[in-house]
Every structure is written in structure tokens, then in C-alpha cells.
Specification:
This protein is mostly helical. It has three helices and no strands.
Length: 84
């Protein structure tokens, strides 16, 4: 929680400052922040999957490995989206 609060506070201050101009809505602001974090989430998921899955010697079957990667990817994307 101590890592999330400063990022949220900074984003909130930026939104309050920029919302006075009425250029965009709160939805557009949040979507832009989340979309900007998706590439970092994907890169993190790939790095974590490679470092975690293969050295542990789990099943290399495409169905099992793909499902595990999907779960890790969803977790990473929701983590970064949840920071805001």
C-alpha cells in the first residue's frame, strides 16, 4: 500500500489540475493511464514467466504453459491497472 499511495496521489493531483480546463473526462484520464501501463505489464509477465516456469521444470505442454502464462499476464495487467 505504501508503494501505491504516492502514485495515486500524483495522478490525482494531475487530474485535478487538468480537469479545470475541461479538456477531457475522468474516464479518458484513467483509460490513458491504464493503456500506458499495458506494455510494461506484458513485458513483466513474459520475464516473470520465463524466470519462473521453465527453471521449476513444469509441464512444457502448450496448453498448460499457455494457461499459466495467461494467468500471469492477467495478474500483471490487473496489478498495474490497480495502481491507479
Amino acid at each position: 500500500m505504501s508503494q501505491v499511495e504516492p502514485r495515486y496521489d500524483i495522478s490525482r493531483m494531475i487530474f485535478i489540475r487538468e480537469s479545470s480546463s475541461k479538456m477531457y473526462s475522468q474516464f479518458a484520464f484513467v483509460v490513458s493511464i491504464v493503456v500506458a501501463e499495458i506494455p510494461y505489464g506484458i513485458i513483466s509477465a513474459v520475464a516473470y514467466f520465463i524466470c519462473f516456469y521453465f527453471p521449476a521444470g513444469f509441464n512444457y505442454n502448450a496448453e498448460r504453459a499457455g494457461y499459466q502464462f495467461l494467468i500471469i499476464l492477467i495478474d500483471e495487467v490487473f496489478y498495474f491497472a490497480g495502481l491507479y
